[in-house]
Amino acid sequence: MALWHRIDPDVKGAKHLENAPGQAPARLLIGGHQNGLADPILACIALQPQLHFFTRADAFRHWLSRWMMIRLHMMPVFRPVDRVDNLAERNMATFSSAYARLEQGAICGIFSEAGHLDERRIRRFRHGSARFIAGALQRKRIRDRGFEVLPMHLDFERYEGYRTAARVRIGEAIPCDDIPGIGADSGAARVALSQRMRDALMACSVNLEGGEMYNPHLAVCRFLEGAMGGPVPHHTLAAAAVLLKTDPASVKAAFEAALKCGWGHPRLNDDFAAAGRWAANKPTSLAPLMWRLPAWLIFMLTTGWWPRVAEKAAQHSVKDVAFRTTLSIPLTMVGVSLTWAVLSLGAGVIYESLAAVPAVFLLLRGAQYLAMPLEDAFIDARAERRIRPLMSAPFIQKWCTTLLARN
Hints:
With 407 residues, this protein is an alpha/beta fold. The protein folds into 2 domains: 6-203, Glycerol-3-phosphate (1)-acyltransferase; 211-407, no CATH class. It has 15 helices and 7 strands. The chain has helices at 38-46, 63-71, 87-103, 128-137, 140-145, 187-203, 214-228, 234-244, 248-260, 271-279, 293-302, 306-317, 324-350, 356-387, 394-406; strands spanning 6-7, 26-31, 51-56, 75-77, 107-111, 147-156, 165-170. Strands 1-7-6-2-5-3-4 form a 7-stranded mixed sheet, sandwiched between helices. A hairpin with an 8-residue loop joins strand 6 (147-156) and strand 7. The chain is globular and about 65 Å long. The relative contact order is 0.12.
């Protein structure tokens, strides 16, 4: 996962998962769902505690995936679309298992939208999460231990793209037990709790406009991310949405004109982020990283081509964009590992030395580690060089740089 994405090690709000001395409350993380399997994997990698995720039941159908999912502490949730017998009873069994884990101080994760969407925005919540929370609040052992519901934002700048950024952010605990009727699990209480959770998640998330304005808003967001060198403040993205909606017809026309004159679509590449770096006078500098060139050459000749092969394979094999990294990341992992093993064993045979096997393996792993900053710089510099002649596009000048100047 870390080879594929530039995972931000700075998890904003990680302090909310810390425990006071002698206290380990049960916690439920609620998150928006951009991707298929990569969302929970990113959370498990970026956060220190062990996580137990609710996962769509159809992912457990094949014996191999079921074996893996169970060992990743994932729990099946059945939906009407799964067309199984005794759906309610099956979900109650899953909930009972989750309650038992919470009683021992576990941290569970759930995607309250009840489905994924390959867009950086938060949709309407289904009420299954609220029903689960209402049940948890009725458990004395969970109440005695303490129970917290926290928003968790999982953000991929372009999650099917090799070496794009991925971040995790944790918000403050959401008060739940003050909602009238939540203990009795009334319908009105579930609706009120779902809205409260959604509001809390939106406050710490990248939440872009939907519909026809999504792509222009995404382009502006990527431009600002490039200019600011990281995540864009929530109020800045909200201000961008207000500005774009003042003249939506002009915005869409300028955006479409930019694509026609050579700009890459923000869903498919990183041209707008590169433009942001140019506008902020922060172009990528290769010189300080060139001492890594020997390691980069070793990386590219041995395993650096694997992510690109996996990316192409996923584009041709997987129609649903949200599941492309579900193929490309494991394929890269297996491909890189096998390549290292073959080269290491080959060196041992050629030199007739058992010591050559771990030595070559460590050399290849070390070369990859040293190569990645230079690999990222090469990727960014190529994008900047490509779009520099296009910086005069009206969409950039009128809508993107205007927002940058305000911030």
